[in-house]
Amino acid sequence: MQVVYRSDYRPPTFWIDHVELEFDLDPHNAIVTTKITVRRNTDQPSRTLELVGEQLKLLSVSVDGVALNDDEYTASSDLLVLNDLPARCEVQTKVAISPVTNKALSGLYQTSGNFCTQCEAVGFRRITYFLDRPDVMARYQVTIRGDKSTCPVMLSNGNRIASQDLGDGRHEVVWEDPHVKPCYLFALVAGNLKCHRGSFTTASGRDVALEIWVEPQNIDKCQHALVSLQKSMKWDEDVFGLEYDLDVYMIVAVNDFNMGAMENKGLNVFNSKYVLASPETATDDDYLLIEAVIAHEYFHNWTGNRVTCRDWFQLTLKEGLTVFRDEQFTADQTSAAVKRIDDVAGLRAGQFAEDSGPMAHPIRPESYISMDNFYTSTVYRKGAQIIRMYHTLLGQDGFRRGMDLYFRRHDGCAVTCDDFRQAMADANDTNFDLFDRWYSQAGTPELFVTSAWDESAGRLTLSMRQSYPDLAGDLPGTKDRKPVPLPIRVGLLDAESGAELSQYNDVLLLETESADFQFEGLDRQPIASVLRDFSAPVRLRMQRSDDELAFLMAHDTDAFNRWDAGQTLATGMLLKMAQQAADGQPLDEPKLFSDAFAKILTDDSVDEAFKALAITLPRESVLGQEMDVIDPDAIHTAREFFRRSVAGSHRDQLTALHQSLAADGPYSNDQQSINRRRLKNVVLAYLVSLDTPETDQIAADQFSGADNMTDQQAALAILANSNAEQRIAALDEFHRRYHGDPLVLDKWFAVQASSSRAGALSEVRRLSGHSGFTIDNPNRVRSLLGVFSVNQSVFHQADGKGYELLGDYVLLIQSGNPQLASRLVSAFNSYRRFDTGRQELMLRQLKRIASEPNLCKDVHEIVQRALK
Ligand code: B3K
Ligand code: ZN
Questions:
Q1: How many domains does the chain have?
Q2: Which residue's alpha carbon is at the smallest distance from atom 7 of ligand 1?
Q3: Alpha-carbon torsion 639, 642, 645, 646, what sign?
Q4: Mutation pick for ligand 1 pocket among 273, 298, 375 (CB with most ligand atoms within 8 Å)
Q5: In this model, does residue 230 exceed pLDDT 90?
Q6: Residue 512: its pLDDT value, please?
Q7: Predicted confidence band of residue 476 (pLDDT cuts 50, 70, 90)
Q8: Is 297 among the catalytic positions?
Q9: 362 and 312 in one domain?
Q10: Nearest of 799, 794, 798, 811 to residue 846 by alpha carbon
């Protein structure tokens, strides 16, 4: 299969200045007529224009109005080659496509009977022959013709400039986008949709119509999305001086979508999961995610659309930067500390794991077979951490200067990560050349820190050293890796009072392999707090006693490190217990953590959301990353024992706390109520871990009495993971009530797929045969199989039955929806980290998948990398 290399980038032989698209919509036989005005690229003199396609049926071609004979071009379903073209001309093609059979959800497809498109990265070629690459930017005019009855609404990018009734039961609408854009930002939506309207007045006084388009039954669930959009628009003006640039901003919610959402110019298409919300159907987390995804796609209007990527290897240019922007936005809307902790927990669970397996790649990859495989947590989340480091080093004002220069230089252009780095450096008269290494090296650096105290000199020395752990296999970006620039935020605490010694607060910059940093003039030995706010995406390796960690957990003024000290403390204890479990020894009581746990719960200086995070134990998969050979059973036994033991020691306190949190009045979605629900539900999980009729009843009561989905779903998930006799009744009741609402039904599947009770795996197998399950809907597949595949102790059941189940579904899904299948198959990427028995069983599935005769290239690429 063809490998694309970053080093092979060449500018196109022609530019496209203008695009005129005409769609005659039909589910089986949609006709797309495309007129492109092309201009030879004088830097790349060639008279040949190669337009790519995919699964297209070519009906006709003409140049400057003259139809070509068969011998004047060569064409296949995926390539159209025109020779001897003049320097400027108009090329017209007509093709037929079949939206209703398009199960890949890329290109033009149908979802719940409506038409919709998805073009990033390379879906536009499934609509028409084109120069389907982001550096070709053009103006678009789009005419849509469709049935008035099935497609009363027909949308595309930009402004609606004309419409007419065609008299035969069909009508026509014409859209024009005044901005140049790459074809991956093209969008079309047509169907039976209703609109929730709002407006926004920009800083310079322009009125923008805001339109959220949804299926009629969902019209009451759009207000949160609308408010989120308004907040995002305001925030981008306030923080970055960026205004919206069209008269209308549309968001369409669709049920079948491969990812979260898509930032098409002026016409975002969203997975309905990230639009629709009501207190009865969406949890607090859903509300938060909706706000974040709406913001993310809106922010792309500048970071992605106005300034886009020269080629797909530069994806982090727009994604890392836009994730950074949405993280800052959420931090400003909620709590910066809690947001940071949530993000880092996600980074460690997903990106750190990716960075240590066969899919490890630099944030700017070197090669791909399917670009869709590189929409990864490395490109997105690690990419955002790299952007954050510029911000940490430059401060908000310096970062803003860099952004301003970036837009001044590159507005309307398709550029590279180097261009961004250069703008940041030039605007601040500094040099970021060493940052290049972050873009070209894969793997998570380890930062080793030791401290030395010189009593007579009153001096503390922190010695720091960075290195990369070796990765198995010959992976790109892992040879001859050099030290990367690491901003390391450090503070010192008085060892007796716990007070911050604020004059020592600093951001140290480690740019070499190792360096010593000294803190002078200290009266007595302080406690160092290192890598505050997680100022660099590394694994911190610092020898600290349990007492020192407990001290930081109690006193650190940096909320992130306060939380992280607790996590590190718990991790150490849990790993020791896992060893005891594996050796058949009795397990130690987690005394030190348990004491700290009780203190946090009564600490008035932190909010409930922070408390919830501080008492949440590290995930099983994160604990696994710290073992030489992952032992899922021992980890599970240890973590369950740990939880039960802490709960047992504080049963009365937890019961009282749950009771007082549950006594809050009716549902409200102010921040404090959200925080209190979050804590309440973590506390409930501790209580139910005690496995007693009384504690089960607390969960059952919460389930049946809840007036909002957050409390109800949390109680259901906890019951689904318990031996409570109310478990089945709760699951049945939930299903009875919500089976008609796809997003809530997803939750019903997900809570069962995340359960680790005995027999959980056969339940997942059984649910895959449930009448509500379908492989045609990505949300449904992810809520059952995606959730199950990260449920460590169940997926990695020693007999390999979990692997078999996933293997079956990868094979079933891959021919229809390659992107979805390739996400699922990635669960096998960690196989080298397990014992030989499990390795064998996972390899068996990988080989079984690899030997499938018509394997799609997405899955092929992941499996080949894993097997290498
Ligand atoms: N840019 C899209 C992702 C497209 C994924 C294509 N397989 C959503 C986002 O990151 O905002
Ligand atoms: Zn994005």
A1: 4
A2: 372
A3: negative
A4: 375
A5: yes
A6: 98
A7: confident
A8: yes
A9: yes
A10: 811
Residue nearest to atom 1 of ligand 1 (CA): 262
Q: Is 220 within 8 Å of 80 (Cβ atoms)?
A: no
With 90 as the cut, is the pLDDT of residue 71 above it?
A: no
Q: How far is the CA of 147 from the centre of ligand 1 (A)?
A: 30
Per the structure, the complete domain to which residue 101 belongs is given by: 14-191
Residues 396 and 417 grouped into a single domain: yes
365 and 413 both lie in a single domain: yes
pLDDT tens digits, one per residue of 231-263:
999 999 999 999 999 999 999 999 999 999 999
Q: Model confidence over 800-856: pLDDT tens digits?
A: 999 999 999 999 999 999 999 999 999 999 999 999 999 999 999 999 999 999 999
Backbone angles phi, psi at 530, to 5 degrees: -115, 145
How many Å separate Cα 588 from the centre of its chain? 37
Q: Work out the mean pLDDT of the chain and round it to a whole number.
A: 98
Q: Is residue 847 part of a domain?
A: yes
- Residue 802 neighbours by CB under 8 Å, 6+ apart: 761, 788, 794, 795, 796
Closest Cα to atom 3 of ligand 1: 262
Residues 404 and 341 in one domain: yes
Q: Are residues 74 and 149 in the same domain?
A: yes
Report the CATH number at residue 831. 1.25.50.10
Residues 6+ away with beta carbon under 8 Å from 770: 749
- pLDDT score recorded for residue 72: 85
Atom of ligand 1 nearest to the CA of 819: 7
The number of the ligand 1 atom at minimal distance from the alpha carbon of 371 is: 7
Q: Does residue 475 surpass a pLDDT of 90? A: no
| Nearest listed ligand to the Cα of residue 259 | 1
**Residue ranges of the alpha helices (H) in 615-741?**
620-625, 632-649, 651-662, 671-688, 693-705, 709-720, 727-738
Strand partners, 173: 144, 163
Substitution site in 184, 254, 262 for ligand 1 pocket (most atoms within 8 Å of beta carbon): 262
Q: Is the pLDDT of residue 717 over 80?
A: yes
Q: Is the pLDDT confidence value at 549 over 80?
A: yes
> The tokens of 474 are what?
């010959």
Enumerate residues 6+ apart whose C-beta is below 8 A from 855: 814, 849, 863
Please check whether residue 779 is in contact with residue 255, taking contact to mean a CB–CB distance below 8 angstroms.
yes
Boundary of a domain, candidates 235, 266, 301: 301
Ligand lying closest to the C-alpha of residue 185 = 1
Read off the CATH number of the domain in which 236 is found.
3.30.2010.30
Predicted interface score ipTM higher than 0.90: yes
Region 529-549 average pLDDT = 98
Ligand 1 site-directed mutation target among 109, 119, 185, 259, most atoms within 8 Å of CB: 259
- DSSP, collapsed to helix, strand or coil, labels residue 9 as coil
Q: Report the distance separating Cα 353 and Cα 80, nearest Å.
A: 41
Q: How far apart are CA 863 and CA 848, in angstroms?
A: 10
d(CA 372, CA 369): 9
Residue ranges around ligand 1 (CB below 6 Å)? 120-121, 259, 261-263, 296-297, 300, 319, 372, 375
> Of 415, 440, 465, at which residue does a domain stop?
440
Cα–Cα distance for residue pair 829/484, rounded to 1 Å: 26
Query: How far apart, in whole angstroms, are the C-alpha atoms of residue 368 and residue 357?
Result: 16
Co-location of 174 and 214 in the same domain: no
Same domain, 319 and 435: yes
Which residue's alpha carbon is nearest to atom 2 within ligand 1? 262
